[in-house]
Write a structure and sequence with these properties.
The protein has helices at about 30-35, 55-65, 125-135, 150-155, 155-160, 170-180, 185-195, 235-250, 255-270, 275-280, 285-295, and strands spanning about 5, 10-15, 20-25, 45-50, 65-75, 80-85, 90-100, 120, 140-145, 165-170, 200, 210, 215-220. It has about 300 residues and is an alpha/beta fold. The structure holds adenosine monophosphate.
Length: about 300
């Protein structure tokens, strides 16, 4: 078990789902990723919150094997994001983004975290993602996540970041947007040419594709009868993936495929509750049950 350094947003999310509003639930890319990764290996979290961030939330993270030595508590309010989902949960619109303390966030990596062998650069400005890399020693594996906003406004920086990471994780729309290629195989090739050894393209309920070397691996998502809230599923997927890699400390291509299965198992739990609630309540037994279902669905 090796520690995973995770940097990203820590948020309160107001979620509109099926005509109901869920105000200020715990969210943020780093929160979802940390809870997911900590199912498999200890996490070192770096992020910022405001004075309104409740002790119960810090306790919840600490109790789950998340080291908060890199959590900055700044003057002001915690980052707040508000989104509304379509009836069938297939799309969402952002109603509001209050950056609050996140506006001036400059990640400071504590000395004790700088040798972390596994690093996840959650969805934040690629300039900040590169500042994290500038502060750490040579890790064994760096995964970066991103979103359409950064593809729009930090295109060149994102491409520069790609040259410094091992795996880029993004969804199908983002892969097309970043490369101007419609075909995902061609898009993945163009992304790998920027530097990452692996490119993982998420396709929501249609699963995920992993491109490495000459190989393509296609993993279906678990067919679920209950989907409540897709928020954070992508962050959870990436957190579970890197958490498993850190636990197994094996970067072979077959183990990377296994890591995708572990990420998907956690993402399938995440979407069953509002915000992080289901991910938080998931026991080791629940995770193993999902992995068993995957075993039956695929032959990993
Ligand atoms: P996902 O559903 O995987 O896109 O992740 C949703 C999470 O991303 C929510 O918990 C939000 O708090 C967080 N989020 C939304 N917008 C941003 C942003 N501009 N930067 C960082 N995190 C964000």
């Amino acid at each position: 078990m090796r520690p995973i350094l995770i940097v990203g947003s820590i948020a309160f999310d107001t979620l509109h789902l099926g005509g109901k509003c869920h105000p200020k639930v715990l969210g943020g890319s780093a929160t979802y990723a940390s809870i997911a990764a900590a199912h498999f290996s200890p996490v070192q979290l770096v992020g910022v919150v405001g004075h309104d961030f409740p002790d119960a939330a810090t306790k919840l993270l600490r109790d789950r094997n998340v080291d908060l030595a890199g959590l900055e508590i700044a003057h002001g309010e915690t980052f707040h994001w508000e989104g509304r989902y379509s009836e069938d949960l297939s799309s969402r619109e952002t109603l509001r983004t209050d950056l609050n303390v996140f506006a001036d966030f400059k990640p400071k990596i504590p000395k004790a975290f700088r040798a972390a062998p596994f690093v996840m650069l959650g969805n934040i400005d690629p300039v900040l993602q590169m500042e994290v890399l500038d502060q750490i020693e040579k890790p064994a594996f760096v995964l970066a996540d991103t979103m359409n906003l950064w593809i729009d406004i930090r295109h060149a920086e994102l491409k520069k970041l790609c040259a410094r990471i091992d795996m880029l994780v993004l969804n199908d729309e983002e892969a097309r947007q970043l490369t101007d290629e419609q075909n995902l195989v061609v898009a993945a090739k163009a992304l790998r040419a920027l530097g990452p050894k692996q490119v993982c393209i998420k396709k929501g309920e249609h699963g995920a594709l992993l491109f490495q070397g000459e190989e393509v691996f296609a993993l279906p998502a678990l067919p679920l009868s209950k989907v409540v809230d897709p928020t954070g599923a992508g962050d959870t997927f990436a957190g579970g993936l890197i958490g498993f890699l850190a636990r197994s400390n094996d970067l072979s291509s077959s183990n990377l495929r296994r890591a995708l299965v572990h990420g998907s198992a956690l993402a399938s739990l995440c979407v069953e509750g509002v915000g992080t609630e289901r991910l938080i309540s998931a026991s080791t037994g629940d995770v193993h049950a999902r992995l068993e279902t995957f075993r039956q669905l695929t032959s990993f």
